[in-house]
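Deliverable D4.2, example record:
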Amino acid sequence: MKRRDHHLQHRAVSRPSSLILLIAALASLTGCERQAVEAESKPQPVLAVAASVSSYQPVASITGEVEARIQTNLAFRVSGKVVERHVDVGARVKTGELLMRLDDSEQQSDLKIAEASLRAAQADVKQKTLAYQRYETLLEARAISQQVFDQAREGLATSQASLESAQANLETAKDALSYTALKADADGIVTARNVEVGSVVSAAQPALAIARDGPRDVVFDVYEAFFLKGEPSQEVEVSPISDQNRKATATIREISPVIDPQTGTIRIRLTLQDDQSWPLGTPVVGAFLGPAQKGTVLPWSAMSSQNGKPAVWVIDPATRTASLMPVDVSVYRSGDFIVSAGLNDGALVVTEGVKLVRPNELLDWES
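Output generated by the structure prediction step:
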């Protein structure tokens, strides 16, 4: 009997304990539901800005390089075989410095022949002059006829003409000999070499290229699409790729009127300021400003998408909810993008918390 009473007493004690646990569980569930309801009714905090249409200039960063304002292609004026080369690419040269030489044996022979012809013509003129003077005296004494005197005078004139021709031939031979030596026409740096020792070149065939000392240009090859809305601003900010903190302002000097058929680009030459003595061939980057346009500038954090196309969340102040609005983006830039269509001026656009926004959800925004 004692054991049974003890068992009944134990069951009596267990029932109130189970009831307490059940009440606690119901209270906990009620609390969670209350928290969920409160969470659902609490507005989602976001940041928003009022869309404002303003003017901007699209920027295109394009790479180029520094070149000399004047570059000269040097060539021999006569054909022949290259026998000497005294410079290489990168060498600094002075005006009149010997750069290359052709085999001049043929020109030397022509010069000797011209010199001999000149000496013969000079001797003939001297002889014809003495004969003319003698015939002139005999004519005064009426020892010869006028016809004989006229023949002597004609012979002297012919001899003098031959002398002039021999002198011209000698100068031509000297010029031809000088043309076998290729000399620098200005101070500068050799930038290209097209022939080597032993090469047979023709007249006017480019042999060397020299970048003259003096003003420097920055050359860019820009794609045609950049010009569809007009020419860029005259002033361009440029800097070496290796040191982009070293900035300089260059002015557009020349825009090519034709498109390169191989690259589809248009060449633009900019003039560097005189105090920018950047080495030839320095790679640079230029920030080209396009014509002014209008649009709404928004930070990247405002970007969303709808059916794979750009969109932004626009807040309706009356309902305190946001809806996804598709937009047309004209320019993507580092840090922001520019909307050209799809937004009304003054529309509230969510810029922070975009991923937390849901349709018909209450929002609490700050500008």
